[in-house]
Amino acid sequence: MNEFVEAPAAPKEETWQEEGLKRRLIGTSVPRTEDERLLRGDGRFTDDVQFAHQLEMAVGRCPFPHARILSIDFSKATALEGVKHILTGAQVRELSDPLTVLRPVPGAPQLPYYALAQDRATYEGQPVVSVVATSRALAEDAIELVEIEYEPLPHVSDAIEALEEGAPLLHPQSLDSNLLASNSDRAGEPEARIEEADVVIRSRMRIGRVTPLPMEPRGVVAVWRPGARELSIHTSTQVPHLVRKQLAESLRLGEECIRVSASDVGGGFGMKLGVYPEDVLASLHAMALRRPVKWIEDRMEHFRASTHGRESIHDYCLAADAEGRFVAMTNTYTTDIGGWNSPFGSSQLSSVVFTGPYRVADAAVERRVAMTNKTPVGAYRGYGQPEVNFALEVLVDRLARRLGKDPLALREMNMLRPEDLPWTVPSGAVYDSGDYVKTLHMAAEAVDYAAHRGRPRTPRADGRILGIGLSAFVERTGYASARFLANRGSKFGAHESVTLRANRSGTIDLYTGVSSIGQSSETAFAQICAEVLGVEFDAVRVHSGDTATSPLNTGAFASRTLIAAAGALREAALPFRDKTLRLGAWALGIEPGDAVIEGREVRHRSDADKRVALADVFSRAILGQGIPHDETPGLETSAHFEPPSAAFSFGTAAAVVAVDPETGEFEVERFVMVHDCGVAVNPMIVEGQVRGALVQGLGAALGEELRYDAVTGQLLSGSMLDYAVPRAADVPPIELLHTEVPSPVTTFGVRGVGEVGTIPPGAAIANAICDALADHGVELSALPVTPESVWRALEAAKAAKKGEAA
Amino acid sequence: MKAADFLYHRAGSVAEAVTLLDEYAGEARLLAGGQSLMPMLNMRLWRLGALIDVNQVPGLDGIEVEGQGDLEATRVGALTRYASLERSPLAASRLPLLVEMVRHIGDRQVRNRGTLGGSLVQGDPTAEMPLACLVLDARVRVESGRGGREIAMGEFYHGSYAAALEFDEMVTEIRFPRHPQHFAFSELTRRHGDFCVLSVAVTGECDSDGRWHDVRIGLGGVNDMPVLAEAASARLAGTRLADDDIREAAALTQEAIDPPSDMRATAEYRAHLVPVHVRRALQQLCSKNRAADRR
Question: What angle do CA B158, B32, B44 make, to 5 degrees?
Fold first, then answer.
């Protein structure tokens, strides 16, 4: 299936010159608008929203990975004073429809994922009963009193085993195996090239299951006013308009009856993309009780109830000629989607970027989506790109060792050059532009790679051996187009939208459906809008994430917000600017062509005495008084913009790691990231985004792991006690370097930046460890990389050597 | 999650606290720093009849020194916060090993609230304080309505999370004998402040002729409670901690351990690490001694 059919648009005229812009604000590290309220404790997260007569909800969850629900007796819970309402699967089925999917897996059937389990639960943590009471503690007391009789059923938690003959079936009514769907993309004749190749490296590479772990867990407050037929939802989401759509579908309401607002949001990372069972449950309770119902996910629930990320097994094959030129690449992989299909499902971008930044004409990829008795997997920062980066970049180093070549030279030999771009990969996606080799050299120079290459891998005075590892990557940011999404059955568009509205204070209200999830969209939007209008940065006030006030949009995910919104901002701001100039010129009695906006005034471009305040101009427009007869009153513009294509960010990371060859303990002493996100609207925000994502990538590389017990199928690391997310003290020193190649496919040349840091840490660190231990013959094939996994690899290498000797 | 209902008492004295403990007959817990107790209540792992807050009880915190020379002892109140130990010049000079290990506990917030007595009673097999107290040969003072007694750290646990206390008993003080001349500490954690994969604390005395005695080797995280590797210690008595002595002693530590497998590491890996970390800690002990000689 083709990623999209058309080639990207030819590079546009330089947008800056076309519009007479001076790059006054774009490219400047304006301090974040969001910071003041957040630092003062004035943020408004879901739990900060309180209503009179509000009740609280708690959810009873299946304690088994797979179980039949034989009976539910809630008589004791009902008898508890303060308990107001209880829902079970049967009522939920009567009152609502299953949760819908926003990004379907092509070829997958619809699964009947109701907000409460029907006769069977397919993962530990699946909601089975929900209770509303006067306090959360009381609701939890009531949950303990609900007597549920379960019949535990055979379960399967390993994605490979789930696809084997005879595995327990999760959804026999919809599927005759646990394979939800499979899709493949190919170009050329990779099998034939592999046959002829001088060297072929094959390996099974495993990527662990992790949790996105936002600081604010999920939460929802539902308020139903039956007389108004209005369901008002406050929730922690990246996509208020999509939540509204999905809730309307599940609750059998018209979209006009639902208002969703989401700001502030304490982090999303892809996990807050769409409706979860608890959103439907809180709404059903609120509608039944006619009282506001709040549910705030606690951290213990979060580990089981919110979608997980990653977990895939890649069978990679990298074939090269004797010089090291890549001649073919194949990747057959299984991605674990868990017990149900979540709104976004498991990672899909592994199929797009599996060939990395390399020139490979013959390549094939096959994606198999496996269902297992575990928490559903959803989108997570990177969405398949960190996974294939780890697999491929580790194998590139393995190939280099096999051929006795320098890993840097091998990468350079195979990398796409600026003149090779645009380049179409097997999925049909097109890498737009970039200088990949430059970032490779910058990363290598920053860690003094050349000097290190020449040194022997012997222990330092502290007993540790130093290694350097590289990882080069491309990252798809944004969506190709609505046409591409339609091909895949997606239930959302590729556009972003804004409304600009003048007010009588002389400032501009900017309305967007993009909620503030920490990505700094309020700041960046104001920068771009102010840039185009010619006003000061603080003359633009951004209002985020409320479906009742914002134009219909797509949402904050896929590193796409700015890719699409930059165009919408420009297209809304240009007519706004022109009308402001016409009205201002009319007020001043000058030609519009002579008028300019500067600061908070419209003035004559050369006669400084001729000036009128924006407040005056905007008042005239709002009142319809003192404007030309042929002008309509009001000053408000909206624009919807869809970029012609996705933009690809790129870069190279280098890790310097010291390894203890006796214990496997290691320390990342330096981590350098060279990165290109095209034109940086706000370099400080870019740095924050890259750093934040790097820390998540380092966490997944070094210790974060959701592990399920092989026998009981239960989550072993389902709390902050056991799940090793890095804390400030655990983050190695990070050095960031940037290049700036404008993308030809986006407004202002921007590329997405939100996810990129998650991509290279795993491979760079694994490669550094293998480099340090090259004399021991150590190979790593799984994330996370832990001291124990390094020790085991050392032991395995030792045993292999012994075997050879014998 | 939110804790189920419980009664809250604020005790004004040790006598009041132990009377309440007796009244609730095992259904009550003392609240000191609350760094383990409160999460357990919130996660509903425990349902309590009552919580008895001892934070207002006077005289339960502080560090005092008594006696001189070999009879010197340091008394630390059970309610003494980790942060107080961390910042106390007296603790730094009298209990340097304890102070070094305190820095490995949790994070700043945990150390501001958590207490020495609380950690001992909690009895986490990976915790730093029980290991430090064991290696330093501390004794734990407990009180109840029936009177007081002292328990040697070596006898303070029945198992993991199981202090050898009766339900009506309360820890009031930890008493340390004179601090050993030399010490070293080594710990492997996944993250700073995390529960350890393993920890090793060693102490010893070195004569002027370079012979070692009273070498104590304490191990955390590799059994259901912190343990002393006694065979290994015995191997080192009277030696100069030569490389062979250390290597052989390190190998003998295997007798003392029965490591668990958990999210942090497998038993096999812990078993591999113990002798390596013991060897390195002993080498550190030696080199510290040599550095002291040079001074």
Answer: 75
CB atoms within 10 A of CB A64: 20
Q: What is the Rg, in whole angstroms, of the alpha carbon atoms belonging to chain B? A: 20
A791 to chain B nearest CA, in Å? 8
Domain endpoint, select from A273, A305, A337: A305
Q: Is A140 an interface residue toward B (CB < 8 Å)?
A: yes
User: Both tokens of residue A688?
Assistant: 């924050």
Query: Higher confidence at residue A562 or residue B165?
Result: B165
Is A548:A229 a contact under the CB 8 Å cutoff? no
pLDDT of residue A492: 87
Q: Would you say residue A207 lies in a domain? A: no
The alpha carbon of residue B75 is apart from the nearest alpha carbon of chain A, in Å, by 32
Of A723, A706, A701, whose CA–CA distance to A780 is shortest?
A701
> Is the residue at A66 inside a domain?
yes
Mark which of A259, A282, A305 sits at the end of a domain.
A305
ipTM value greater than 0.90 = yes
- In angstroms, the CA A500 to CA A507 distance is 10
A801: CB partners within 8 A, 6+ apart = A777
Within 8 A by CB and 6+ apart from A342, the residues are A101, A274, A307, A376, A377, A378
Contact B247, B258 (CB under 8 A): no
CATH number at residue A524: 3.30.365.10
pLDDT on residue A488:
76
Q: CB-CB: which of A137, A663, A723 is closest to B3? A: A137
B192, A727: Cβ pair inside 8 Å? yes
| A631: contact with B, CB 8 A cutoff | no
Closest residue, chain A, to B188 (C-alpha): A665
For A98-157, what is each residue's pLDDT tens digit? 999 999 888 899 999 999 999 999 999 999 999 999 999 999 999 999 999 999 999 999
Give me the phi and psi of A588, to 5 degrees please: -90, -10
A294, A788, A790, A791: which to substitute to probe chain B, counting the most B Cβ within 10 Å? A788
Average the pLDDT over B91-95 and give the result.
96
> Contact A786/B4, CB-based, under 8 Å?
no
Query: What pLDDT, in 10s, does the model give residues A32-76?
Result: 999 999 999 999 999 999 999 999 999 999 999 999 999 999 999
Q: Which of residues 194-233 of B touch A (CB under 8 A)?
A: 194-195, 197
Mean pLDDT of A347-373: 96
The domain total for chain A is 3
Look at residue A631 in the predicted model and tell me its pLDDT.
96
Q: What is the pLDDT of residue B294?
A: 63
Q: Please answer yes or no on whether B2 and A791 come within 8 Å at the CB atom.
A: no
Structure tokens at B182: 């030399």
Whether residue A2 is contained in a domain is answered as no
**First and final C-alpha spacing in chain B:** 56
Which positions ≥6 away from A264 have C-beta within 8 Å? Answer: A34, A37, A38, A43, A44, A45, A515, A516
Range of the domain at A58: 46-153+213-305
pLDDT of A168 reads: 98
Task: Give me the pLDDT at residue B295, please.
Answer: 58
**Residue A19 domain-assigned (yes or no):** no
Residue contact A717–B5, C-beta within 8 A: no
CB contact under 8 A, A727 and B272: no
Residues A677 and A750 both lie in one domain: yes
Chain A hits for B266, Cβ within 8 Å: 788
Residue ranges and CATH numbers for the domains of chain B are: 7-53 (3.30.43.10), 63-177 (3.30.465.10), 182-294 (3.30.390.50)
Is residue A730 predicted with pLDDT exceeding 70? yes
Measured CA to CA, the distance from residue A230 to residue A242 in angstroms comes to: 17
Do A224 and A337 sit in the same domain of this protein?
Answer: no
Specify whether A136 is located in the same domain as A89: yes
